[in-house]
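Input chain follows. Return structure tokens only.
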Amino acid sequence: MRIVHVLHNFPPESIAGVEVHVMRLARTQVSQGHDVLVVAGSEALDEKARSRRERQTGLEVARLVRAAPPGESSPSSPSLLSRVYDARTTRAFAELIAKARPQVVHFHHLMNLCRSLPSIARQHGARVVISVHDYWFLCPTLLLQRSDETPCSGPGSGARCVRCQGESRSGSVTMRLAKSVLRAAVGKALLGKADALVVPSVFVADLLAAEGVTRRKIRHVPYGVPSAPATVDVPRPCKNGDQIVFGYVGSIKKHKGVAELVRAFMSLEHDSRARLEIYGDVERDVPYGRFVQYLGANNPRVRFKGAFPPDQVFDIMARLDFLVVPSLWRETGPQVALEALAAGVPVIGSDLGGLQEIVRNGENGLLFHPGDTEDLRSCMARVCQDSTLALPPQRARERKEVCTVDENAARMEEIYREVLRA
């Protein structure tokens, strides 16, 4: 099958959840004999080149390079109009699609690109599948979260988004309202015209349906994670001697709740058995990263371990007794929690969004009220006192809790064949 994956960025330029998922899926599909091309946006700007080709360990990657319109300095913050249609990006994408002749174009994200690309794919005879990894199609902040960090129920007609538009853009209330309504209408139209929508959790499926998306198009496919090597099966708990090691693995950003985690850990009663290791790039969001480092600066039990390549995630899990996922936003289905369970590491996570479907409180982890540092501290103190709590008796995958990369790819192929038959 000829498949094109489209997303906002791709390793090594950017390494985050969506990029890692697409990289794993595309490589698996290539290994299964499919003809796969990854088309990715870029943070780079180039006034001359429209695209550039790369080859990464057997995977063909084409990067669409956008020119900055007047007044813009980055493709990650384009004007509303260029987000809907950008002539240069559209031409480059059309050329790639005409040459690749895909049967299916699987869109994962259109940030850094433009919303006209699905219609280009359809014009070239391809079926269009869209994966909803976050809330970008519905929300200008991607997080579906108000400025006070409380959950937003959704854009509705778009009028609810005026406040968020106003916080990031100038202009009259009437102009902000028009932008909000247009953005919501365009996003929902894109979702509505897809041949199939793939979501990583039932939570996201229900949210889309509540926004008027046809439920019969929605397919729930959990993220797939690689098989954990046998070396991570170190007896737990306290595989680090008498110490209990809590870990955070992921982006160091405000909506991820890393500051709340550090505060909660610092408020533990100086339990000498506990250590916190934070894995992630503090330079990705410099002000927030430095703030988090400042919070833990005077505690030798808080250790910042830096960025890491995706293929080392199980080496990290082998060091941890508990993974903490302290997100303030409604995660759609965090892969890192699945990776932890695949490695037999219990998860302490925020009780919201897709995490509620992954963590079964008291069985394979503990849930706490999101943003509540005292509740999180209580969970960590509880396992410090009795670290056998929430300890899975064997690997999660052996109990069929976690989907493998191969299983995820097989389900995607079923969806592709389904839309091709329709």
